[in-house]
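Write out this protein's structure.
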Amino acid sequence: MNEAPDANLSESNFRLFRPDSPVMALGLAVNHLMTKPAFVRQFFGEWTRILVGQINRKHYYSVTDGKSVQGFLGWALARREKAEDWVEGRRGLSYEDSVQGDCLVFNAWAANSARVHRFMVNEARKIIRDKRTVYFKRYYSDGTNRAVRLNVNDFVGIHVDRELA
């Protein structure tokens, strides 16, 4: 039986990483995301604008195993009506729309494995704990996507509080 590349890694081997240099952060993000199917189809200018905005607002993390980037998550903070418009594809989020709000929009999420994804979900709970709703889109290999909304409930806060205790 073939083992997954990170089969010998525990989630404790992963760390969130945010470089001091925005240029390095952009390079790492592009290098990690450029081969992921959901990002390959994106227009360069549009996608770069989103990444630069996330990096400038510090609304992102790379996930590392100490040797290489294993995941990336980026988000925007938005008011409910702006987040609804984004998730339904009616409009994009401007930089100004992405700075503050009671909703969190994950518009970049890529993990190299199920273990990295699980680590990212656990860390994302800490990021969303004071938000009202989380929005994101699922992209599928056939080119379709699905809008997703998740209400942030007391479970997230309780779960995170127990982890931090």
